[in-house]
């Protein structure tokens, strides 16, 4: 009887050990599965972040690096520089928006593709280091902007409805004692905005940023 009881106890111990091992195996498998799933999610998230960083690095960008009074009425000259990364951009795909608000709240704006005056003075666009439009009968606007390159462009004051007047140009800004805002919108990249403020009156060549 004692031997039978001992055998029964041993069988019970072995059964309990097997049960513990079985449960431990299940817990280990669950832990491994959780770890693999967590690692997969982290790798996926890191891949998305890396892709976003790459997309941001190769996106087009442009900044306005200089601005001057160009004539005695409403024309202005600007210099812009495109980021070294990105892709060539067609000039007609770059849109400008020129705005200003008088002290009484009257708002004026003008917008078009860069190089398109839509009335008023002609708008010229050329690469820095090349011959501009003055005394150049064969001058033609550039058609594409290259990454890392710098360009000059002129803008004419006026509004969408009255392109021939001087609104938001140097004379208007000086007379009203106000600033203007210039926006450049480019494809596959952020817009850039520049406040235009007369720093030395409206004499030709005076800076306006």
Short description:
With 209 residues, the chain is of the alpha+beta class. 31% of the residues lie in helices and 26% in strands.
Provide the gyration radius in Å.
34 Å
| Structural class based on helices, strands and sheet pairing | alpha+beta
Order of helices and strands: HEEEEEEEEHEE
Through-space gap between termini: 106 Å
Q: Helix amount, in percent?
A: 25-40%
> Could you say how many structural domains there are in total?
2
CATH class descriptor of the largest domain: Mainly Beta
Number of helices: 2
- The CATH level-2 architecture of the largest domain is identified as Sandwich
Strand content: 25-35%
CATH topology of the largest domain: Immunoglobulin-like
Averaged pLDDT, please? Answer: 83
* Biggest pleated-sheet summary: 4 strands, antiparallel
What is the total tally of β strands?
10
Structure, explained:
The chain is α+β, with helices and mostly antiparallel strands. The chain folds into two domains: 1-58; 62-196, Immunoglobulin-like (Sandwich). It has two helices and ten strands, in the order αββββββββαββ. The chain has helices at residues 2-58, 170-176, and strands at residues 62-69, 75-82, 89-90, 95-101, 107-113, 125-127, 144-145, 150-156, 180-185, 192-196. The protein has a four-stranded antiparallel β-sheet with strand order 1-2-8-6, with no helix packed on it. A four-stranded antiparallel β-sheet has the order 5-4-9-10, with no helix packed on it. The protein has a two-stranded antiparallel ribbon with strand order 3-7. A hairpin with a 6-residue loop joins strand 9 (180-185) and strand 10 (192-196). The N and C termini lie far apart (106 Å).
């Amino acid at each position: 009887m004692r031997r039978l009881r001992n055998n029964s106890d041993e069988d019970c111990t072995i059964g309990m050990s097997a049960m513990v091992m079985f449960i431990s195996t299940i817990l280990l498998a669950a832990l491994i599965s959780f770890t693999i799933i967590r690692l997969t999610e982290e790798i996926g998230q890191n891949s998305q972040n890396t892709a976003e960083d790459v997309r941001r690095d190769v996106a087009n960008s442009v900044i306005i690096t200089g601005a001057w009074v160009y004539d005695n009425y409403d024309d202005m000259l600007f210099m812009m520089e495109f980021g070294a990364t990105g892709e060539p951009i067609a000039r007609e795909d770059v849109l400008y928006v020129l705005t200003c608000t008088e002290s009484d709240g009257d708002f004026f704006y003008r917008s078009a593709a860069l190089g398109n005056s839509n009335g008023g003075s002609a708008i010229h666009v050329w690469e820095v280091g090349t011959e501009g439009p003055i005394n150049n009968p064969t001058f033609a606007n550039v058609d594409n902007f290259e990454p890392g390159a710098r360009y000059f462009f002129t803008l004419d004051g006026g509004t969408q409805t009255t392109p021939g007047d001087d609104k938001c140009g140097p004379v208007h800004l000086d007379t009203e004692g106000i600033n203007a805002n210039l926006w450049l919108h480019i494809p596959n990249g952020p817009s850039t905005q520049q406040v235009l403020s007369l720093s030395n009156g409206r004499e030709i060549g005076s800076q306006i940023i």
